[in-house]
Structure formats: C-alpha cells, structure tokens
Amino acid sequence: MFACLQFLRFGCLELVSCLFPAFLFAGLAISKYVDLPIARYDALLIYCIGLTLLFWVIRLETWREVAVIFGFHLVGLGLELFKVRVGSWQYPGDAVTKIAGVPLFAGFMYAAVGSYLCQAWRRFDLRVSNYRPFLTTIFAVLIYANFFTHQWLPDLRIPIALGLLIVLRRTWVFFTVGIRRYRMPLAVSFALIGFFLWIAENAGTFLDAWNYPDQVNVWHLVHPAKFGAWSLLVSMSFVLVASVKSLEGRLYHRGTAATVEIAPQHHDANHADR
C-alpha cells in the first residue's frame, strides 16, 4: 500500500514539474485545430514567450533558471537550423518568425526540457553526488557536435555515449518522495527522460508541429533510435542546469550548501547524500 502511495506521489510531482511542457503541448493542440488570426508558428512564439514570463512572475522559475532555459533554447535553435537545412525534418506552413525554414518558437521545445529539470530539481529536492563537471561537459559538447558532424564524418554517438557512461558511473542523483529519500544513477535518469521525450516527439509530430520526411503524407511513430538521441541530448540540458545548481549557495546568497557535489579524487558515492 505504501509503495502504491509513493508511486502516486512520484507521479504527481512529475506532472507538476512538467507544467511548461504540458502548456506547450496544449498550445500545439489548440493551434492545430483552431483557426487563428495569425500564422500558427507566430502565435506559438507569442504564447511561449508569455508562458515563460508568467512562470517567472508567479515565481515558478527564478530569473537565473529562465536564463539557463533560454540558453538551452538557443542550443536547440542552432540544432534545428542545421537539421532543417540538411533535410532531417521540416516545419510545414509559413510564418513571419520563420528563419531558414525554422520557426523561432521551435527553441521552446528544447527550453521545455530545461524547465522540467529546474522544476524537478526543486520539487524532488534533488542532490547530485560525485559529479564530474569538466568531463561531463566535454562529453555533452561532443554529443552536441556529433549531431552536426555525423552528416559528413562517421557517427560517433555510441563511443561518445559509452564514454559518458564511464564518466557518470559513480554519479548518483538523490530525490525525495513524501517522507522517503531515494537514489538512482544519473545515467539512468538520462535514459528515462530520453524515453519520455521520444513519446513527446511522437505527440509533436502527430500535431504537425514538425514532420520527418517519411511522415509528410502519413503519420507514424518516430523511429525508436530517436529515443537514444534524446537521452544523449538531455546531458547538455543537465550540464546547463547543474552549472547554476553547483554554485547555488553563492549565486542565491542564502548560505545554503550546493546541490551538486563535485567529485573528489577518492570518494564513496554511498556516503554522498546530505
């Protein structure tokens, strides 16, 4: 009985942490089936900017978190511009705010991932132990770069992913549900988030937010390989959020301990929760 209650609590916390993605998909659904006075992508851009400001005004997110989310927005937009140019996917319909075939609102789909991480960090009281920021950042950058370079060079996502797993082999994320404290390997959390992002991508293409070449005429499931790609891309979002959280005590001037514990030379992760 207690396990079922904990699972329900966990689910409720996850749902609340997904407020921004939920509102984003609500906007996608409404804009698909309701006639709008302006182009769909233009309306979605205005909607997402307003949503971001609303989250900041009602203090669901701090301005520092908004800045981190905006950073991931730019990272995602850069990837979108390249992928659309090489024909990996396309955005149907015209818009004033469409540049090189990419609507500016597209970056908010990546920003939604950053918003989820910031919300979950707070609501689950996340703590990360034995984190290696330098090596993790290097592999996150390599993952991002490989999304570009594999168009001309061999696709190195598998060796890069294996390298990231080695770097994160002793990194744990601790989280609270109700009165209990739990932990899981950070790499596992990346995989779980990547799986749900793959589901979200299927929903996004179904709502015609964008289409892969083989979905233009008839919609079908996005290839399962995209699940792995999203799991890898989550690492970039995590690095951006962790960069703030690791210095949280100093940045927020609260005198609180940082929520990301940097790994020393010799450290036992089993004693890292505090």
Main sheet summary = 4 strands, mixed
- Span of the ends, CA to CA: 28 Å
Cα gyration radius (Å): 19 Å
Q: Which stretches are poorly predicted, pLDDT < 50 over at least 5 residues?
A: 266-274
CA-based shape: globular
Overall residue-averaged pLDDT value:
88
Write down how many β-strands occur, each being a DSSP E stretch of 2 or more residues: 6
Number of domains: 1
- Give the structural class: alpha+beta
Strand content: 5-15%
List the helices and strands and how they pair.
Blueprint: H1 2-17, H2 19-33, H3 40-57, H4 63-85, E1 98-99, E2 102-103, H5 107-123, E3 127-131, H6 133-149, H7 157-167, E4 172-177, E5 180-185, H8 186-206, H9 225-245, H10 248-252, E6 260-262
Helix pairs in contact: 1-5, 2-3, 2-5, 4-5, 4-9, 5-9, 6-7, 6-9, 8-9
Describe this structure in words.
The longest helix has 23 residues, at 63-85. The chain has helices at residues 2-17, 19-33, 40-57, 63-85, 107-123, 133-149, 157-167, 186-206, 225-245, 248-252, and strands at residues 98-99, 102-103, 127-131, 172-177, 180-185, 260-262. Mean pLDDT is 88; it is low at 266-274. It is globular and about 50 Å long. The chain has one domain (1-214, 222-248). Strands 5-4-3-6 form a four-stranded mixed beta sheet. A hairpin with a 2-residue loop joins strand 1 (98-99) and strand 2. The chain is α+β, with helices and mostly antiparallel strands and 274 residues long. InterPro entries: DUF817. The chain crosses the membrane at residues 7-26, 38-58, 65-82, 102-121, 133-152, 158-179, 186-207, 227-244. Pfam families: DUF817 (PF05675).
